[in-house]
Specification:
Elements: E1 2-7, E2 30-38, E3 43-51, E4 57-64, E5 72-79, H1 87-90, E6 102-108, H2 126-134, E7 138-150, E8 152-163
Antiparallel strand pairs: 1-2, 1-8, 2-3, 3-6, 4-5, 4-7, 7-8
Length: 168
């Protein structure tokens, strides 16, 4: 079993983000993520909860990345109508609900592991995902639309809570 608290203080933004927006996120939002891995059945049962979001939730994922880095999405934990998961996994990905607080449960199978371009995890590589989780090289986050549009109408500014490394 892996468990972690989600906190905006652990968030790291993508390098292409406007420099003023790259740091941690100060927010009262919080969340928890719990995962139980069943190696034999090749499944991970999870529960994701979040509350206190300052704007509506848009999506949640597990990313492959070390502490203080941004990693690629390897699994979608939940989606919304406005931010759907990729077509290959959308039918397997639960809705986030909310809009600013909810508990989402789901099961991750090999069919939900998506390619992490340039990071060595191919679609369906469940064992690689589990290995990365056990090595502490993954994090879960919850995104919400925060502060309205972000200088470009088609790209909302995102807020995310990121799990503490070592706890997950």
């Amino acid at each position: 079993t892996f468990a972690a608290r989600l906190s905006g203080y652990n968030e790291v933004h993508f390098i292409a983000t406007v420099p003023a927006l790259r740091g941690a996120v100060s927010t009262r939002a919080r969340g928890n993520f719990r995962a139980v891995i069943d190696d034999r059945a090749q499944r991970i049962d999870y529960e994701l909860s979040f509350e206190g979001l300052e704007a509506d939730v848009t999506q949640s994922h597990i990313h492959f990345g070390q502490r203080h880095t941004v990693g690629g999405i390897v699994v979608w934990l939940c989606q919304t109508a406005g931010t759907p998961a990729p077509a290959a996994v959308a039918g397997l990905t639960p809705l986030c609900g909310g809009p600013r607080a909810n508990t989402v449960t789901g099961t991750i199978t090999p069919a939900q592991v998506i390619e992490v371009v340039g990071q060595g995890i191919a679609p369906g590589e469940f064992d690689e995902l589990v290995r990365a989780i056990r090595a502490g090289a993954t994090y879960a986050n919850v995104h919400s639309v925060t502060f309205g549009p972000w200088r470009r109408p088609s790209r909302p500014r995102l807020m995310a809570m990121r799990t503490e490394k070592g706890g997950y």
